[in-house]
Amino acid sequence: MTTDVTHAVFHMIGNGHIDPVWLWNWPEGFQEIKATYRSALDRLSEHPDFIFTCSSAGHLAWIEANEPEMFAEIQARVREGRWALVGGWWVQPDCNLPGGESFVRQGLYGQRFFQSRFGRTADTGYNPDSFGHAGTLPQILLKSGLTRYTFMRPGPHEQALPGRLFWWEGPDGSRVLTFRIPYEYCTWGKDLEAHVRKCMTELGQPVDELMCFYGVGNHGGGPTRENLASIARMNGEEDLPELRFSDPSRYFDAVQGRRVPVWTDELQHHAVGCYAAHSGVKRWNRQAELALVRAEKLATLATAVTGLPYPGADLERAWKRVLFNQFHDILAGSSIESAYEDARHEYGEALATAQHVTNAAALRLSWRVSIPQREGSKPYVVFNPHAFPVRLPVEHETGGVPESFTVTDEGGRPIPAQRIRSEATVTGWRKRLTWLVDLPPLGYRTYTILPGAAPEFPAVEASDTHLENAAYRLDMDPQTGGIARLLDKRGEVDVFRDTAAVGLVLRDDSDTWSHGVFRYGDPVGRFADATCTLVERGPVRSTVRAVSRYGGSTLTQEFSLFADQPYVEVRVRVDWHERHRVLKLHFPAHLLAPQATFEAPYGVTTRPTDGSEEPGQRWVDLSGVFRPTGAVRGLTLVNDAKSSYDTLDTNIRLTVLRSPIIAHHDPYVPSQDGDYRFLDQGEQTFTYWLYPHEGTWREAGVPRLAATLTERPVIIPETYHPGPLDPAGSFLSAEPENVQVTVLKRAEDGRGHVLRLVETHGQPTRAHLTLPFLGRELRTPLGAYEIKTLLIPDGDGPVLTLNLTELETLGEA
Q1: Residues 681 and 796 in one domain
Q2: d(CA 240, CA 249)
């Protein structure tokens, strides 16, 4: 069939896609950014109609710092409308794995950079090469000033969509007009005719205007003289559409009023192997983004309560280190090995900054807590970073604790405590203790270690092969080192229908990205030959260590039951030496027809239990009918480092690691005798919680549980001294349970405090916030899965609602 091109228009999008890190390190990427931008500026001088499209504020920030004269040229081209700013984010990140707040910060720092340097922000989100896109992004985009979105992956062979142009709607109802790039975002040939004719196959009703991307990319380059000459030549040919120099904003303006379909799901899947590739970078990223959020909260309190200067510049620099390393070829695990040495250093800088800020703020606050003098005492002030109360065990190394000791709260009441294994191997002077804390919302309590025998608290029952408390009995499988049985005694419910927490090994001959793969389903063995040993027994927790083996690898899992906690904690250490294999932990839930729910960036996603490899944040839940009773029950798996899962029928499987060749990209075929390096060789650690529950994840309060595992209390050793603060106190609380305060910080312009609220259950509510540290109390509505940003001004002014970039005021809260 011949395509009618009489009225068709191709918006020719000249761009130079630049991976600042991939098969090269960032210094080389930096140089390529300079070279590409120089080339684009030269083409703009030579061709008066040419328009260059540019994303990534972080790249432009490099140019501003290193080549201010070039940056001034770019500013002039932006003013005349020929250097088009798109994206609005710091880089083009992986669009599945960062936490929700990281996506907010991509826009916060990116859009504010654009506004401050160019007097305008971007209106089009732009991630052409990212490997899939979380379904919760539309709200984050829209509230960052990005009303349109452009992407390419997944392609039509990976996900069918109702058209190239569609409205993308998030779970909260937010919509952005979205375009999927046809075929490719960059070109390598000099003449573009073959590319243009291929794109013509996409023409059709209701849209007779399309974007056609061109320009040398990946390692930069941008549009060439030959590209531009071929566009000029083709514009005289009658059987081709009008080829119009354009940019994404001009394109969306042209099609804004068209009737197009609506898509209400994620944009998946491309490169499912990247959800697990390189365990290190995944762990560093999660640690750093959560550590910075916690540091901001405590620093804000220290500023408001004690006058300590707010370290805004330090925190911004640390956030930008994290945001840069969320670039899709870094966080995805698909870059060369040496690139991860750089990433480790930069994440380390961010983590060190967070630690310094946190410690300074917590010390400043704890020094003002009134702590009475008691002979031989060791006081500790423990801070809760959450705006809801938490009750959980904490751990701390200390010295000089006598054999007989008691831990008390600020009221002198003894609480369960016990010695556990110290990090130090010495004669016994250093001890590690764990004790139970019960902390008020975003507040603190004082706990004191005293000499003398504690009251008798019953120990959690345990042996080498079992653990038992009031809620659960856990029996070990001495062959695999997994869980032979987990009985929920509260309803006489067997949580698993078969042995759980077993290390399954599956074949994986795919490349680093797992191109063309959607699930790992070829088992080759499992960890076995286990030894189980009781390593702790006490009134806080008892722990069994299970060590199992496969090939040259060892899997160590330490299973703990606590006296009064509703979960099983498992600390994992893997020493891995296999190649072309995947390691998964297997949890066969005893449920009928369950629904799988995954945490997504600032929201959740439900997916079929078909065994597909899926990205997830900190938790995944299966909720369904418990076969024997017909009651609705569920099982949640929460973890602090992993982001790849599958759910098959009634099974949760956590992908611990993959071991493909590093930076191997199809279609290259490795040689049989080649000398290659493989991912995730050696030792790594992480922690997961198993949380059986009644009802669904909503009734079980899973979002707060996940936050409790991954954002831990801050423990400050103190001494006795007077102070203006009571021995226990709360600075901020949020109700009801489906409201979370994810951010407390100073506003970017310094005019007050910023609070970010998220509705976590998909149920509209009215948030009730109590803020004693500011002498305020407020109520504000929250829609289902809504992200709301509040500005509480210094002084007595009204509380305002801001967009996520803090550049626009949306009205009173």
Answers
A1: no
A2: 23
Q: Residue 544: CB partners within 8 Å, gap ≥ 6? A: 462, 464, 465, 466, 467, 476, 532, 533, 534, 535, 558, 559
User: Measured between alpha carbons, how far apart are the two ends of the chain, in Å?
Assistant: 56
426 — pLDDT class (breaks 50, 70, 90): low
Q: Is the Cβ–Cβ distance between 282 and 103 less than 8 Å?
A: no
The amino acid at residue 417 is A
What are the tokens at 280? 């290190």
Q: Is 27 in the same domain as 100? A: yes
- The pLDDT assigned to 803 comes to 98
The reported pLDDT for the residue numbered 2 is: 45
The answer to whether residues 402 and 332 belong to one domain is no
Domain identity same for 46 and 104: yes
CATH number at 526 reads 2.70.98.30
Strands 632-639 and 619-625, sheet pairing: antiparallel
**Res. 428: pLDDT tops 80:** no
Mean pLDDT (whole number) for 318-342: 98
For residues 59 and 120, state if they share a domain.
yes
SS3 411: coil
Q: What is the reported pLDDT for 3?
A: 54
If residue 251 lies in a helix (H) or strand (E), which one and from where to where? Answer: helix 248-255
Q: Is 412 left (phi over 0), alpha (psi -120 to 50) or beta?
A: left
Please report the pLDDT score of residue 691 as a whole number: 98
Length of the chain: 813
d(CA 234, CA 228) in angstroms, rounded, equals: 10
Task: Report residue 338 as tokens.
Answer: 């040496």
Position 740 scores a pLDDT of: 98
> Do 49 and 143 lie in a common domain?
yes
Q: Are 241 and 5 in contact (CB under 8 A)?
A: yes
**DSSP H helices in 309-462:** 312-324, 328-331, 337-366
Instruction: Give pTM, 2 decimals.
Output: 0.97
Please give the single-letter amino acid code of residue 715: I
Of 201-205, 220-224, 304-308, 406-410, least confident by mean pLDDT is 201-205
CB 624 within 8 A of CB 532: no
Pairing of strands 165-169, 414-415: unpaired
**Tokens representing residue 333 in the block:** 């695990």
Give the DSSP H or E segment for 429: none
HEC string of 431-455 equals EEEEEEEEECCCEEEEEEEEECCCC
Task: Share the mean pLDDT of the chain.
Answer: 96
Contact 398, 380 (CB under 8 A): no
